């Protein structure tokens, strides 16, 4: 039996299917997904989650991950909508990588990642949803773990290390990429990284069903295959084994045929929210110019005006940012990015009271909006109102302990507090969490050991630190 690659980048997802079995019932909106969860034990699920979190930390350490709560949450809301069609438990999360290549990957346990190049190249959110659905299907069908004999012991972790190595190599030159292939890892890859055509077909088929059930146009998966086909040369940095089954006209035709068998979904002529995401992504990834944005903004494009504002903020030019933002406000008064950008302009000018007025109301009205509340917390920290800021951030940490943006704010708030023994302990604790979730596990453990020594007089706090320290030390034993 052919063994499976740990993670499926889009480049690896280009396997040909010779015959596309179709379980979609064209007479109704019902579809069937193979039930494979019954045989998955708790230990297997825990192992997959541990692997996903390990890769999460390594990717945070070695790749240019975007830390932008608004962008993260916009994309994760689409992911969550598709995930609602599955039996997958709470995923580890979504990572946005600042890389111009068209790529995405998924890891056991429910870790998903998208490159900004994918957002920059897609023409609508349905195309992005098609990619997401394909990746979700690989995870829900456990394509990475179903060949149990191939993944005994540390096998999956070894493959996790190869995944991270290949992703890092994609950021470097050819020599660096070749170095990743050397030695025993290269031999392991040669034996284990052949993708199953049947599994690729299954991910295509089930992924398309997921996206249709979520309300997205299945034709868009076939459409984006064509975009990928035109851009294949841009993925040439990856080793040849990623291209065992390149995307061909045959696979594109199968995707189109499958989409045609589904009930029609009326395409959106204009998706303003996606245009905002795409142009903001281009700014964050520095894949656009001031001139391009000025032309777009001059065409009364709200997305263009917001992107131009973001561009000037990125340059530290608050005056031009304000002019662009004022133009955007003529067309929309309520979009969260208007509030975020206005607050950033005030903060850039050290105008704290106007910054507070700008964001406080919106954050209070939308307490579930992470981006607005984190910006509110940032303003509060600047104004030395640290207790309130930490209360706001802690709500989100309770839901997701891997939230790096939240840990940064907690550390920033604690640093702004008056000197005390508790401050010293909390600085060490929050620094440890930041170090840990950015892959610096050894530094995180050292910080917690220091916090443990300082907290000996505080029995409750010391016990909490000791418990977290034990957990970190145990998880660090799993080497990639």
Automatic annotation (TrEMBL):
Give, as one word, the top-level EC class: hydrolase
Taxonomically, which superkingdom?
Bacteria
Which Pfam families does the UniProt record give? Peptidase_M48 (PF01435), TPR_19 (PF14559)
Q: List the InterPro entries hit by this protein, alphabetically.
A: Mito/Outer_Membr_Metalloprot (IPR051156), Peptidase_M48 (IPR001915), Protease_BepA (IPR030873), TPR-like_helical_dom_sf (IPR011990)
Where is the secretion signal located? Answer: 1-20
Which UniProt keywords are given for this protein, alphabetically ordered? Hydrolase, Metal-binding, Metalloprotease, Periplasm, Protease, Signal, Zinc
Write out the GO cellular component annotations. membrane; periplasmic space
Q: Where is the active site?
A: 135, 204 (proton donor)
| Ranges of residues in domain Peptidase M48 | 73-256
UniProt: Zn(2+) binding residues:
134, 138, 200
Which cofactors are reported in the record for this sequence?
A: Zn(2+)
Q: What does this protein's UniProt record list under function?
A: Functions as both a chaperone and a metalloprotease. Maintains the integrity of the outer membrane by promoting either the assembly or the elimination of outer membrane proteins, depending on their folding state.
**Family stated for the protein in its record:** Belongs to the peptidase M48 family. BepA subfamily.
- Protein known as: Putative beta-barrel assembly-enhancing protease
Query: What is the organism field in this record?
Result: Acinetobacter schindleri NIPH 900
Its taxonomic placement starts with: Bacteria, Pseudomonadati, Pseudomonadota, Gammaproteobacteria, Moraxellales
